[in-house]
């Protein structure tokens, strides 16, 4: 199931049922799990580990050296989970020694065309990256987050779970879970109510998150007092507790 024009290094480890399209190049130290489909003109460079049932479309560059001037050829890696869709012209770079040595991607993510994921990024599962979205190095994107077309994220920032970063927006601070961030530079625009309803969150949980957002993010009062006032809500709703914990732990401040 490997096209005759593909070049696969003997040191690569491909599951027996992998499909590899024409003119694709797979280097040594690349491992590809069962059920994967790799299109034409794809370049896979190691050390890279790819899980099961991933679909990689044509002209993607997976596992290339990090674009970091400090990189000096250290053996770093890219690790990709299962059931991801990686569309045309996506670039996923390996990590750097100074950033932990690994770029890691979870399961069931959709990377539309022209996505760039830089070195040492950590991406959870069930995320969506629309066309042209880009991550600088050392970015964390949590589960179920969505980056709209051409959104960008500054290095060392975190996009919280179920957050939404809008079209052409630039997140230069952390984006709190369950919220929307829009603009250049991005500003908070409320709770991601539509996305949460689509994922089955109750109206009660969404209302509690909205109250927490208004007190902690929207208003400019004393943050510690607001968080203390929300303690009962955090006890009743795990979403509110996660929202508050994220804000307290943020090293760079959240989009407001």
- Residue share in helix: 10-25%
Question: Looking across the biggest beta sheet, what order are the strands in?
Answer: 3-6-9-12-15-18-21-24-26-27
The structural domain count equals 2
Overall mean confidence score, pLDDT: 97
- Could you say which structural class the secondary elements and strand pairing correspond to? alpha/beta
Please outline the major beta sheet: 10 strands, mixed
Name the CATH homologous superfamily of the largest domain. Answer: Hexapeptide repeat proteins
Give the count of helical stretches: 5
Low-confidence stretches: none
- CATH topology of the largest domain, what is it called? UDP N-Acetylglucosamine Acyltransferase, domain 1
From the alpha-carbon coordinates, what is the Rg to the nearest angstrom? 20 Å
Number of strands: 27
- CATH hierarchy class name of the largest domain: Mainly Beta
How much of the residues is beta strand, in percent? 25-35%
Shape: elongated
| CATH 2nd-level architecture of the largest domain | 3 Solenoid
Q: Quote the distance from N terminus to C terminus.
A: 51 Å
Task: Put the structure in a nutshell.
It contains five helices and 27 strands.
């Amino acid at each position: 199931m490997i096209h005759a024009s593909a070049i696969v290094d003997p040191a690569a480890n491909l599951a027996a049922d992998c499909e590899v399209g024409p003119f694709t190049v797979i280097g040594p130290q690349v491992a590809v799990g069962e059920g994967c489909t790799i299109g034409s003109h794809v370049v896979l460079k190691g050390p890279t580990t790819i899980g099961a049932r991933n679909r990689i479309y044509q002209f993607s560059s997976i596992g290339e050296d990090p674009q970091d001037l400090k990189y000096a050829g250290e053996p770093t890696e890219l690790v990709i989970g299962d059931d991801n869709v990686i569309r045309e012209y996506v670039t996923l770079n390996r990590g750097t020694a100074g950033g932990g040595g690994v770029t890691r991607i979870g399961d069931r993510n959709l990377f539309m065309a022209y996505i760039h994921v830089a070195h040492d990024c950590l991406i959870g599962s069930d995320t969506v990256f629309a066309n042209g979205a880009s991550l600088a190095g050392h970015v964390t994107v949590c589960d179920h987050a969505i980056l709209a077309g051409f959104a960008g994220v500054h290095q060392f920032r975190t996009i919280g779970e179920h957050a939404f970063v809008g079209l052409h927006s630039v997140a230069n601070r952390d984006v709190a879970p369950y919220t929307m961030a829009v603009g250049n530079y991005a500003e908070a625009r409320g709770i991601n109510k539509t996305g949460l309803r689509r994922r089955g969150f109750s109206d009660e949980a969404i209302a509690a998150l909205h109250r927490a957002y208004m007190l902690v993010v929207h208003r400019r009062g004393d943050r510690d007092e607001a968080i203390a006032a929300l303690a009962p809500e955090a006890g009743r709703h795990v979403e509110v507790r996660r929202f508050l914990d994220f804000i307290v732990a943020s090293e760079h401040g959240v989009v407001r």
